[in-house]
Amino acid sequence: MDLEQGLLFLNGEEISVEPKVMELLLYLYHCRGRYVTVEELHEHVWADRVVTDTAVRGTVKKLRVALRDDDLHNPKYVKSVAKRGYKLICESSILDESHDETLTTTIEEPDAAASISDRVTQPKSNKQRYLIWFTCAVIVAMTCIYVAIQHSSSRFDFIGEKLLTEYKGEKKSVAVSSDGRFVAFTGRNLENELSQVYLLDNQDGSVRQLTTKATNARFVSFAQNDKVLLFSDTVTGASSLKLLPLTVSDPESAMITLFDEQYLISGIQPGRVPSEVIVQLANKAESRLMIYAVDLETLQKTRLVAPSHSDQYIWGGTVSPDKKKLMTIVMKPDSYQLVILNFESQQERVLSETSAQVHGAVWLNDEQILMLDRDALNIVDVHTGAMQVVLQNQGDLITDIAVDNNGGVVAIKKSQVRADRLYIERSFADAGAVSRVIDTAPEVTSMMFDPENENMRWVRIKKNNINYIAHLNINTEQQTIHYETKKRLELLDSAPNNKYLLVKEGHRLAIFSIENNHIHYLTADSGLSSDGVFSHNGEEVFFGVQVAGEWEIQRFNISTSTIDVFLRGYMSIRPSKSGFIAADGNGDLYHLDSSLAVLEAMKHRIGLQLITRWHVKQNSVIWSDYDYLKSYVHHVDLVTQKHTVIEDLFLSMYPRTSADQLGEHIVYLSVQINNSAIQQLYFE
């Protein structure tokens, strides 16, 4: 290091660095032998300006890049220790001023014209070769340095975390202002409360509750140069997008509803200009979520991305820092894709694909994306799609992430893998009163009645991202494991003789034989199926599949392993005492006789989502539904046509229900709050 000229050399080569990087190195040199905290660097190196901790760490990273010191586990120059700071660890010594060696050339007197020509031409040739060789060497060296720096700078290493809030209450969605000072989030503190909007000031650690009247505040985003907050009040069939001005003392008093009565509003992200946001919404029940650009001044919606296949779901919709690209997440039957849309060319390309469930993805910069899945936080190279794991997401504790303009990362982190839970049984014979409470371990994620033994339940257990089918004694809590899979698993029905279970593994319907622990698939990975049910005698399975865009009910004979088409035009079916109850693609119910002729349209519509259930038991039709605010369990008596409804908050009565053989009781999951916190994650 040449202190007089302010130059940095590595292995004899001059390295070009920013002035602030040189100041940082000089300060670390003067403090060699001890650790220097980030606060001390703020005070001495950045005394002339106020910057974030992320900017300081970014300058440290630039210094490491310049010194090619990219191995954090075995550093050669700069060592970092969480909460202690940085220390210069290389040996240093003062060198005397070097003396340049000069090359003197003696020119002899020529003897003749020919010798003059030879002696003049030869030195020029040597000089030219030397210049060419030197130029090539410089080019090669600079190329190597550039490649090394690019490779080093593309690395991202986790170095620590800091709690911004305590582990208290449920937190759903997080957003951060462009300068990183403010963090907005949605959530609630108690089970009986509704989700509201909160604002954390990173400068003093204070948290303000901005709303008290939100119905179900779910997604949140800054907009208009961080002067306003937008949030979705997400209720299926009646969702709204609302704006909170942050320039007034009471934002809720000046809150504006931008639009309401939307079927569903999902994520919100900043747009290409301050007056634009990117919103995911569905206009009606039959439509899927699509990505729209919304002009906050005119409220005009422009569709940007829509699903290209019926088995796809799209969310995300984040704009790159240079405003030229849009990143979306596409959920396919057995994988998740990051897809990049170029605004100018309108061309899409798949950047990466993974089998792990993706929770979200944000732009770190124009070259890198931070992707959160159930297993890890990953850096994805925008050009190559190469993925680097930077932080393991053990237990799927991190649920959401956001990034400011300086690359600062904030996250929501749960306190435990799964919230404490109970399973509640209710009796329709007693006006829906609670008849039993079953305490289970958090690993029990769903429960189904055993058709033969009232003390036993079929359950799904989830541990370390593996799903198990188990038989549970609710009195002794003894479990017997029968099957395991890494794919998503849903328990749908049990045969009346208790020999088989009907399940959905991934996107495939299957019959599981309890006697020999064998699974037989009814549908293919590429097909689209709904659900299924056993016949009354347990010898057949009726299930819905989509063929050439149309729904039909197929029938599987267990003894012969044959499939035939049973009924066209319907998505789901249940046997009844006198025939069948069938649901079309919209969920509208029809009563059919034994010859499959329509007896009546029942004027009821059921939910056919993955987590809802419906049952026909004796003279009862029972189904669950939800709107993200509440869950509902409906009961219709086929004889009297009496319709009753039980309702509770969404997680207090999870809609994945099971009914007993007589249709007198249902059981469902009731989840307590999983306390979570806002964290700052530090990377280099």
Automatic annotation (TrEMBL):
Keywords: DNA-binding, Membrane, Transmembrane, Transmembrane helix
Residues that span the membrane, as ranges: 130-149
Domain OmpR/PhoB-type: 1-90
Glycoprotein found in the keyword field: no
CDD domains: trans_reg_C
Keyword Transmembrane attributed: yes
Superkingdom of source: Bacteria
Protein name: DNA-binding winged-HTH domain protein
Gene Ontology molecular function, alphabetical: DNA binding
Annotation: DNA-binding region: 1-90
GO annotation, biological process: phosphorelay signal transduction system; regulation of DNA-templated transcription
Phylogenetic placement of the source organism: Bacteria, Pseudomonadati, Pseudomonadota, Gammaproteobacteria, Alteromonadales
Pfam families documented for this protein: Trans_reg_C
Entries under Gene3D superfamilies matching the protein: TolB, C-terminal domain (2.120.10.30), Winged helix-like DNA-binding domain superfamily/Winged helix DNA-binding domain (1.10.10.10)
Entries under InterPro entries matching the protein: 6-blade_b-propeller_TolB-like (IPR011042), OmpR/PhoB-type_DNA-bd (IPR001867), Sig_transdc_resp-reg_C-effctor (IPR016032), WH-like_DNA-bd_sf (IPR036388)
